[in-house]
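In practice, a research group might receive sequence data for several interacting partners and want a quick structural hypothesis before committing to experiments. The following worked case mirrors that situation: the sequences arrive first, and a predicted assembly follows.
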Amino acid sequence: MIESVKKACQIISCFSNEEPVLGIGAIAEKLGLHVSTAHHIVTTLCDEGVLMKDQKKKYRLGWRVLEWNNHVMFQQDVYEKAMPIVKELILRFKGTVHIAMFDKGTVVFVLRVSSEESTPIQTYIGSRKPAYATSSGKVLLAYNSVYLQETINRGLSHEGPNTITDINQLKKELAEIRKKGYSISNSENSDDMYGVAAPIFSYSGEIIAAVNLVGPPSYMQGSNGDMIIRSLKSTAQSISKELGYIEI
Amino acid sequence: MIESVKKACQIISCFSNEEPVLGIGAIAEKLGLHVSTAHHIVTTLCDEGVLMKDQKKKYRLGWRVLEWNNHVMFQQDVYEKAMPIVKELILRFKGTVHIAMFDKGTVVFVLRVSSEESTPIQTYIGSRKPAYATSSGKVLLAYNSVYLQETINRGLSHEGPNTITDINQLKKELAEIRKKGYSISNSENSDDMYGVAAPIFSYSGEIIAAVNLVGPPSYMQGSNGDMIIRSLKSTAQSISKELGYIEI
DNA sequence: CCCCTTGTTCGACAATATCGAATGTCGTTC
DNA sequence: GAACGACATTCGATATTGTCGAACAAGGGG
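A structural hypothesis for the assembly, expressed as tokens:
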């Protein structure tokens, strides 16, 4: 593990929507680094265009981050290919669409699209939830046994009215998900929220992410449910296809 | 300058739309690093979520890049606030909208939105052009004398039919741009392309970027021109306002 | 099943990041 | 307008840490 690289990553992560502009002192303090050390790393990051310094000697994220973002797989696919379907879904069901990935035992939300009138949900890009308590998480667990093992090792706790806390019951549900090709969650991580998720596969057939739609149960159950599931599965498949995955 | 941080940035930049998935060997070779060194850095980046390793031991960009991207100032503002106007403009004039920043003597395009039927333009996110030969570049030069000096030091060369190659003429045009609040470029960097650009200011009143619209001259000159300029200036102003800039 | 390619680990050396302090620069207050 | 204070930046010495070469492991193809 290379320390300075870790520190650099942490420095970049200091910048947020709440604090988009920071000085050296603030950065150093946040991370418990010596100002001098922080300064060296920050200068390097500026040179690379990852950060930018303004005339007031304050730093902000730079253009290079935007460039990197553009090269993340499925980022474009979502925006260019899947967006029409995604837009339709969120407008129709006043919901929110996420793309989620598995990382260090939990689910991370990496993309988020919602309509203005959608029911507010407490997720933002980079936020995490237990995998076993979300529709996206369950899809990820269903198609990757390593993820499942990591999750079991961490233990299952009660997150919402319907959270699955029994390992065998979870395994049974995951088998069901593999058979159907999608997962649902009904108030498993928070009250009164219904979610549906489908898997995104990479070129090698490995699951790398999940798309999901979350919204109020009333809109999403019943006959609408089938339509949502079909749309979501086709969205997921079209993204997978762009990543080079060939369905058997 | 911290070497390992620089190397880490270069490693991240190796990933592109053409090569979204790379092995350690490929990365090391691309950058002339020893595989062992590359491996250490890559492992660290994986640990931070900047890269991800799949079961085939291939690496790709990870979720953290998406998170960082979300914290870049004006990224959101463009997508949430300015997009309606931007969308209308590109559809109406079959053009392309960019956001550009100044970096190391040239202009870098950091965002790019175009309609499907727009005239193809050879720009992509991260691509560069001489500042004095683009509408965005000229705006950036007009409002920042440091940028201008850097540009002059590099020298002005002929890029298209109408490129400005005389420093005094350039300075005269920049004064004009400051007076009008926008810039135009007419086939200055490539044949038959007409561009209009407006400045984006940060909270401290410093110019940090420019929005521009590029398209075929036929659509954009004449009476349409005024409408485009007004829309573009208001787009730029609304982004500036979100960044905390208060107009005098 | 074996070979060959590719990724991963190991250990010693030397480069280099770190720390503390001193210097510089800006903005603010009296 | 001058002096203060807060902050960024530079400097230099030490020891940490990244680098390199080579040996090891794993995985895929013949």
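Before designing any experiment, note the following. Residues 3-4, 33-34, 36-37, 40-41, 56-57 of chain A lie near DNA strand C (CB under 10 Å from a C1'). Chain A has a mean pLDDT of 90.
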